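Long-time lurker, first post. I've been practising inverse folding by hand and with some scripts of my own, and I keep getting stuck on stretches where the structure tokens seem ambiguous. Below is the full token string for one chain I'm working on. Before anyone asks, I'm not after the true native sequence, just a reasonable design that respects the backbone. If someone could post their per-position residues I'd love to compare against what I wrote down in my notebook.
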């Protein structure tokens, strides 16, 4: 252990700066060129979760909460009007707050947020990404963020997975046990959009069907950097809620 500490100290290991770019081949935010589009509708037909829609004016809209970033819509577009960029589709605050959390997050020391994670029925992909937040590379503690074991100590409830009917009561009881003010974050396409598995005898779907969601983080699964951006924004939002309550 001492040798490991000495190696880390000698190498001056640094945490990764917050950034919203993935690798060159990363499937991120969608780029759409209306001039190339032939209105064939193939991209909409190929989407397995119904994340793409054409409105009355012929403009394509993408619901990133539902999107799996599987690339099937891009492959179906023979005119190459659609393409994945390596820019992350960052989480957005709930519509009632009316503000984007921002493409760039400025570090403001002094923020603090305690998080209770609840797996409502995930495949564990999102949970693995959450686990990475505590490693030396991402180190969520440098932002004043920390996971807690009890909802009574939590400011934010972070839900992963499609909500199963067996865990419906657990979700509601966990939220009820949290002190006011409190926030809810839906992590990943299952919790945020609910279209991956839909609504069945065993699943309810998106967590928004049970609780008011303040922040949704798209992806299947989201990258740790996107989760960090969302949590930093949540800390700012929580601070605003506390001030408003006072």
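-- Answer (accepted) --
I ran through it position by position. Result:
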């Amino acid at each position: 252990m001492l040798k490991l500490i000495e190696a880390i100290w000698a190498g001056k290991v640094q945490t990764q700066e917050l950034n919203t770019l993935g690798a060159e081949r990363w499937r991120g935010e969608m780029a759409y060129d209306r001039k190339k589009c032939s209105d064939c509708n193939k991209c909409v037909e190929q989407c397995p979760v119904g994340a793409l829609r054409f409105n009355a004016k012929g403009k394509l809209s993408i619901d990133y909460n539902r999107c799996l970033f599987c690339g099937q819509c891009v492959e179906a577009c023979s005119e190459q009007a659609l393409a994945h960029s390596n820019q992350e589709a960052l989480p957005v605050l709930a519509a009632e707050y009316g503000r984007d959390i921002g493409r760039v997050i400025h570090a403001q020391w002094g923020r603090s947020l305690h998080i209770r994670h609840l797996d409502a029925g995930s495949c564990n992909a999102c949970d693995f990404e959450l686990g990475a937040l505590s490693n030396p590379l991402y180190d969520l503690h440098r932002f004043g963020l920390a996971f807690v074991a009890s909802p009574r100590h939590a400011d934010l409830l972070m839900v992963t997975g499609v909500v199963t009917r067996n865990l419906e009561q657990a979700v509601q009881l966990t939220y009820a046990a949290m002190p006011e003010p409190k926030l809810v974050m839906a992590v990943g396409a299952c919790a945020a959009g609910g279209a991956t598995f839909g609504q069945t005898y065993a699943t309810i779907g998106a967590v928004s069907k049970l609780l008011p969601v303040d922040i949704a983080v798209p992806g299947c699964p989201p990258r740790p950097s996107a989760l960090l951006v969302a949590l930093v924004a949540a800390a700012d939002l929580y601070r605003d809620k506390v001030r408003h309550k006072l």
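A couple of notes from the structure itself: Residues 111 and 143 are 7 Å apart (CA to CA). The two ends are 47 Å apart (CA to CA). Happy to go over any region you disagree with.
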